[in-house]
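Standup, Tuesday
Yesterday: got the pipeline producing structure tokens again.
Today: sanity-check two examples.
Blockers: none.

Example 1:
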Amino acid sequence: VLDHVKINGNNGNGAHGIVFKPNGAARLIVSDSIFTGAGEGAYGAGLLVQPASGGSAQVMLERVKVEANIFGIAADGSSSTAGINMTIADSVIASNVNDGIVATTTSGHAPIGVMVKNTKSANNGYGIRAIGSNVTVRVDGSTITGNGTGVAAVSGGALLSAQTNIVEANANNGAFSGSLAFK
């Protein structure tokens, strides 16, 4: 559990603000925290969730600011066969060189489910991106603006909208791959 944490200027190629790589079932809760200036060149994230072989992660991020990193928040299931379940709520993800929020996995590896609620993703390379057939990102009540590409679902990833989002004024707004029905 991390509360009121500030990590700034952890630069260098491959440097991250937080790296969460559990080798078993684990939980990460972060609230009211700021992550800026992580990475250099092509790699580095404000928050990287990448379970090791056999590891799984349940992650709750609330009222976090992830700004001016190479990647903002990255959920990467390519090293595990267990899953990642992540919620990002009431947060600001801004001015990251590549993706603001990205969930990616490769065939046969960890399934990823991400819920993005009441969050702003602005001025990133990609606002929100889902990569891989075992990835589902759900977005509700969020604003995606000023990015190179607003939203993108590639390689079979699912990026679902609750129809309460604003995706405007991106160089390319992109498109959600489907809608999310309320239950």
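Example 2:
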Amino acid sequence: KIKHAAPKNTFAIVVCAHDEAAVIEPLVTNLGELEYPRELYDIFVVADNCSDNTAATARNAGATVFERFNKEEVGKGYAMGWMFDRIYEMDRKYDAIAIFDADNLVHPDFLAEMNDHLEAGESVIQGYLNAKNPEDSWVAGTFAIAFWMVDHMWHLAKYNVGLSTALGGTGMVIRTEILQEYGWECDGLTEDMEFSLKLLTHGVKTTWAHDAIVYDEKPIGFWQSWRQRKRWAQGHFECSERYIPKLFVEGIRHGDIRILDGIMQISQPYFL
């Protein structure tokens, strides 16, 4: 068994769920059984514009549930920012916020691994993006293979040479003080990449926790996959337009190769 640093950091776990009654209970139960002192973390579920019983199911499973209804500001990015604001106002102050998707499962050592990285001085950390259902279909299988390759040959490789990687939407941990200092305000189609690039323009890099594993459910059908990939591609193009000029200017101004590398990150030449 890996020897971890003494549990020190407190975590607010945030799960944004839109009509996820079918999958939210296993995740909340799973999160309540992590190998980390239970008094050092709390589980919050945002039932976002739900028309099913997601809120009641999550509450019965042991989560603290906040219900959000807003038909103008729709999407995970808005729901996350809304929940962050409520966490800041709480009497209890958390060292970091961990974010998961409702259809995930989480390795028991996830928070212990993230505590190690926080204790090592890291502030914005992405966990290992594994697959929950790689054998469900050929689509899910190819998604899993793609993620495994990117995890090892991109995230881990960049982390090992000191470059910034990027947040992946789930299995990510951000120091609360970073969120408060720079603000969230990420409501695009790929809010995770947007926040990573926003921080990079300020010289704050995203790091990688190779042994903090989250199991993400991959799309099973082709058209489900198509819609997801299309949304991601649109989000990346939006981020490219907004951040490539900023990254270029800040990278040259500070002479920082890590910031300039963000241009390679968002243009994704290995996919093109």
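Quick observation on example 2: The beta strands are 11-17, 41-48, 64-68, 96-101, 105-106, 124-131, 172-175, 207-216. The longest strand covers residues 207-216.
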